[in-house]
Structure formats: structure tokens, C-alpha cells
Amino acid sequence: MPYIETSGPDATDLYYYEQGQGQPVVLIHGWPLSHRMWESQITALSEAGYRVIAYDRRGFGDSSHPTGGYDYDTFAADLNDLITQLDLRDAVIAGFSMGGGEVARYIGRYGSDRIAKAMLLGAVPPFLLKTADNPEGVDKSVFDGMLDGVKSDRIGFLGGFFPTFYGLDAGDDKGKELLSFSKWIAWAASPLATAQCIVAFGTTDFRADLAKFTVPTLVVHGDADQVVPIEVSGQRSHELIAGSRLEVIAGAPHGFAATHAQQLNALMLDFLKS
């Protein structure tokens, strides 16, 4: 299995999956999943002539489960280690949900010398938390409730979370296998990472990072997203990134990479080829 070893005080091993040849496209998964969430995109992009690299964030999937480093400065450093150790150039970085934070913080800290384009897909930037200077944000009690749920009964919490994630009725057989697949992925994650990442994506301000974007950027969001509402995320990121392209998928929930995979794949390929 291919791994890279990260640098810094919280060094760890990151697993990555690679498929295809051509311009590199790095896929960064959402919480609480792994690179496996990108199954449809990996196939579509590699078949279209791209080198797809999907890695597992520290604490998730097949990466190591360290006891520290669950903050966006470290996540961005991990991404930088992946890009430099694989010597990726002219790369496209695409982050879903929490993974959009890595895209933002990476560009904010490391620039875009190795980056050709960026994608924010159902992503958490620019700033989810409601504060005095961010009144449109989400109340802190929402993140506190998630954190309490994960700490008190992580497995039970995940069972109730994914139907909302995918816009499915918990009592309906529709999407039953997708829910089972997602829970299987999430169960394997570090409980510590699962909890601490809620704090990371719920409280990190990416507004200064987005101001440093100079590469073409695609923003995709579902207008039925109940986890990361488009009004506080995708729409605002589009407004803050000069020249960005916003695509709204009608009726799509948060987990549209699976529920609306063909539409997302088409949008990603069109953007890559433009």
C-alpha cells in the first residue's frame, strides 16, 4: 500500500490511492469518510485521462491514527507533504466538505506554484461558525451537539447522521446500501480524529485564505444541503474568490458526490478541460 510520511511535530503516515495517468488531480475527502467516497470520481477522471490521487486524512481510512495534528494548519502541511513528495506539478486540488478547508488553507499558506486549478465541492469555507463579524454562520450549539453525540455514542450518532448527509429518509430502503457503506467507512476512523475534526471544520476561518486564490476555481454545491448550507458556504466562497465559477446542483444533498455522481463528474470534467 502506498504511503507518504508527513513532516513536523505530529508526523504520521498518510495512505493514498492512485489511478490513471496525465495531469494530477488530488481528491480530499469529507468528514467522517475516506478516499473511498470518491469511487465514482476516481473512475470517471482516470478514464478521461487524468492521474487521480485520493488520500486519507490523518486519523481516517488507511492512514495512521496519531494523537495530535487535527487542525487545518497541520492538514494543509500534510497535503503539502503529499504534493512535494510525489513531486506533483500543474495539479488540480479538489476538496469535498471538510476537505475544502485543506484546499483553502493549502493555497493560503503555500501558494499555487504547483497548483493549476482548485475545486470546492460542498465545502466548509469560508467560515461556518456564527460570530459577531460572521452573523450568517451556524450557531456554536450545532457543533457542540455533534461533538457531544460523537463522544457519547459515536456509532449511534453516525447512524443518524448519514440519512441527512445523503438526503434520505432513515426509514426508507432507498440508499440503504449507500448508508451501510458510509457507516462502514466511518466506523473505521479514529474516534479521537472524528471528534477533533468537528472542532476544526466548525471553528476555522478561511476568509483570509480565499483572498489569496489566484487560480481558476470551481465551486459546486447542492441547494438541498442540510449539513453545510449553501448560503453560508458555497455561495459566499464564490463571492470571495475572484473569477470563480459557481455550479448549483438542484435538489442535491450534502453527499452529492454519491447521490448525484454523474452530474458532479460532468461538471468536474468540463472544468478540467476548460
Helix-strand blueprint:
Layout: E1 3-5, E2 13-19, E3 23-28, H1 39-47, E4 50-55, H2 72-85, E5 91-96, H3 99-110, E6 115-121, H4 140-165, H5 176-187, H6 191-203, H7 207-210, E7 217-222, H8 234-240, E8 245-249, H9 256-259, H10 261-273
Parallel strand pairs: 3-4, 3-5, 5-6, 6-7, 7-8
Antiparallel strand pairs: 1-2, 2-4
Class by alpha and beta content: alpha/beta
Low-confidence stretches: none
End-to-end distance, in Å?
34 Å
The number of helical runs is: 10
Query: What's the total number of strands?
Result: 8
Domain AB hydrolase-1: 24-256
Family: Belongs to the AB hydrolase superfamily. Bacterial non-heme haloperoxidase / perhydrolase family.
Pfam families: Abhydrolase_1
Protein name: Alpha/beta hydrolase
General description of the model:
Belongs to the AB hydrolase superfamily. Bacterial non-heme haloperoxidase / perhydrolase family. GO terms for molecular function: hydrolase activity. Keywords: Hydrolase. This is Alpha/beta hydrolase. The protein has 274 residues and is an alpha/beta fold. The chain is 42% helix and 17% strand. The protein has an eight-stranded mixed sheet, with helices on both faces. The radius of gyration is 17 Å and the shape is globular. The two termini are 34 Å apart. The model has no long low-confidence stretch (mean pLDDT 97).
Brief summary:
The chain is α/β, with parallel strands linked by helices and 274 residues long.
Task: Spell out the key features of this protein.
globular, 8-stranded mixed β-sheet, 8 strands, 274 residues, Rossmann fold, alpha/beta, 42% helix
